[in-house]
Amino acid sequence: MLKNKTALVTGSTSGIGLGIAKALAAQGANIVLNGFGDVDGPTAEISALGVSVTYHPADMSRPAEIEDMMKFAAQRFGCVDILVNNAGIQHVARIENFPAERWDAVIAINLSSAFHATRLALPAMRAADGGRGWGRIINLASVHGLVASAEKSAYVAAKHGLIGLTKVTALENATTGVTCNAICPGWVLTPLVQKQVDAKAAAQGISNEEATKQLLGEKEPSLQFTTPEELGALAVFLCSPAGNNVRGVAWNMDGGWAAQ
To answer: What is the mean pLDDT of the chain?
Structure first.
């Protein structure tokens, strides 16, 4: 479905970003990976799906590096057809104890980076398909873009802002073939979260199943994690012809969290 398209996924060397990149690659999209840590493993996984894959190490808190990444992607593949703004960090503290530099970092990576990547991707997207325009911008927000939790002021502010940016981007491109939507996961089973579950089970001498229920129980009524593969499938839907008129949506995949 996405053959000859190019998807750039920020924060995609592991977890949610890698899951989405793999789902798009499975549909034929060439992939630009971004992030820190192991690069060879994710690159090999994507390449095994039969598409072209490359990597750019842009620090998403630095606008100049984001600009370099977008130029790199255009030089390598012609243009970015699908932009997935996934890069994010977290810091937990009460507002009066929240370090100012951590606030600035969370806002820069979780919100401002999406603005910079979007503004740089839009002109080529609007010019695509003989001037009719085609593009997909998918912002990985969070259920915390819809509701709040204590001690997560910067993260909640950034994710609420990302949904606002999503809506404005959708409206400004509503008569074109370029759509913009947000995905809002609750708890997602990534290697990092699995380590939290394992640590909780070991510390309390309980099973992983019970530790999972404890972790999920306060917020997520389904008592089950969302997986990167499920989020990838939703991203594929948003890129499909069925998603042509899905615009400005904040689509929560949160096991009922926001329904409470």
So the answer is: 96
Instruction: Name the amino acid, one letter, at 130.
Output: G
Strand partners, 33: 9, 55
Catalytic residue among 55, 77, 103, 155: 155
Angle formed by the axes of helices 191-204 and 208-217, nearest 10°: 110
Q: Which residue blocks in the chain are alpha helix, DSSP H?
A: 15-26, 40-47, 63-77, 100-107, 113-127, 153-172, 191-204, 208-217, 228-239
Q: Is 155 a catalytic residue?
A: yes
- Range 85-103 average pLDDT: 97
Q: Please write the tens of the pLDDT for every residue from 9-24.
A: 999 999 999 999 999 9
Residue 154, Cα to own-chain centre: how many angstroms? 17
H or E stretch covering 140: strand 135-140
Is the dihedral angle over the CA atoms 25, 28, 33, 38 positive or is it negative?
A: positive
Q: Which two tokens stand for residue 155?
A: 């993260």
Domain ranges of the chain: 6-188+227-259, 189-225
What number is the average pLDDT over the span 126-142? 95
Q: How confident is the model at residue 130 (pLDDT cuts 50, 70, 90)?
A: confident
Using CA atoms, how far apart are residues 202 and 164, in angstroms rounded to an integer?
41
Q: How many distinct helices (H) and strands (E) make up the chain? A: 9, 7
Topology classification of domain 6-188+227-259: Rossmann fold (3.40.50)
Q: Which residue has the tokens 């593969």?
A: 229
**CB count in 10 Å sphere of residue 126:** 18
Query: pLDDT of 215-249, one tens digit each?
Result: 999 899 999 999 999 999 999 999 999 999 999 99
